Amino acid sequence: MNVKRTPSRSLLVGLVCAALALACWGCARDVGPDDEPQAKAPPQADAQPPAEEEPEVGEGEQLVVDEAPATASVVAEEEKPGIIDTPESVDVAAPFQPQLEPSEVAPPDDPEQTALRDAAKAMARRLASAMSKGRKADENVAKTQIRLLKTPLEIYHLDLGELPTTAQGLEALHEAPADLASADKWDGPYLRDPVPQDPWGNPYQYRTPGTHNADSFDLWSFGPDKTDGTDDDIGNWD
């Protein structure tokens, strides 16, 4: 006689418990100890921030620290002979303009002093103009006197048949020369007054025969510079 056996209740319960245990063990393995929540430590009032580590700097290198972010980097130092670092705020091309102290700044001009200075300048200009005109007037006087002296010399030549010698000079027109060969022919004086001097206080020069007038005579003045043979000489050859 065959007897049909059914699993016992206790066996079924044991199988179910074993399956649950296996499931719980798998969940515990997936979670791990790091996934468990940890309690936060209360903040400490006197806690110091962690010190930053300084990078190591080797030979031939310099440490460059950026100001905007507080970071540091090491760059190789490059030597640049003949180049001087200039601050960006200094304009090298601009000309040097010294800053004067308040005591060195010239005070504004006084109107009275300005008027006196302008008057002095105007007087200096008028004086220079007058001197220029005066020099021109003196030159005209010299030219006129030279022309006037030519007339008595020509009359002297007509009377005596010759001109006064260079040694006798123009004085032969006012007084008869002592060494005159034909004294009876001298019908002077040919000048009422002694021979005048030029406007610059020098005697008029006379030479015969002349250098400029070889067939007659030279009559001239040294001119304003009172020196013979210069460009300002005034003569009867001009």
What name does CATH use for the topology of one domain? Answer: Glycoprotein, Type 4 Pilin
Assign a percent range to the helix content.
Answer: 25-40%
Count the helices. How many?
A: 2
In CATH terms, what is the architecture of one domain? 2-Layer Sandwich
Which CATH class of one domain applies here?
Alpha Beta
Topology of helices and strands:
Elements: H1 9-31, E1 61-65, E2 72-76, H2 111-160, E3 205-207, E4 218-221, E5 234-235
Antiparallel strand pairs: 1-2, 3-4, 4-5
Give a description of the structure.
The protein has 238 residues and is an alpha+beta fold. It has a domain of 123 residues: Glycoprotein, Type 4 Pilin, CATH 3.30.700.10. The chain is 31% helix and 8% strand. The strands form 2 sheets. Strands 3-4-5 form a 3-stranded antiparallel beta sheet, covered by helices on one side. A two-stranded antiparallel sheet has the order 1-2. About 4% of the residues have low confidence.
